[in-house]
Write a structure and sequence with these properties.
This protein is an alpha+beta fold. The protein has 2 helices and 2 strands. Helices cover about 65% and strands about 15% of the residues. It is found in: Cytoplasm.
Length: about 90
């Protein structure tokens, strides 16, 4: 796999530095890192006894839940749009 056209961006997530390599812009990668950081802080503030592993898993579960909701909404809107075209 070639590293051509890939951006290397360092982000801080919940006190840890991560180097993320991706084709997305540096700004996009930083935004993703900030969203993960903020979600981890939110969950941690409600459950301060969670260890970092459980916190990371709950953050991932929340992110996938949000993704599925948006995906379902997009599919509904696409169906509505298709009905209008027919």
């Amino acid at each position: 796999m070639s590293n051509t056209n890939k951006n290397r961006t360092t982000v801080d997530i919940f006190g840890q530095q991560y180097v993320i390599l991706g084709t997305e812009s540096t700004g996009h990668i930083r935004q993703v890192g900030a969203l993960v950081h903020n979600k981890m802080r939110e969950i941690s503030s409600k459950n301060p006894s969670l260890n970092i592993d459980k916190l990371a898993v709950l953050t991932a579960v929340n992110a996938v839940n949000d993704y599925l909701k948006v995906k379902e909404q997009l599919e509904r809107l696409q169906k509505e749009l298709q009905k209008e075209k027919d």
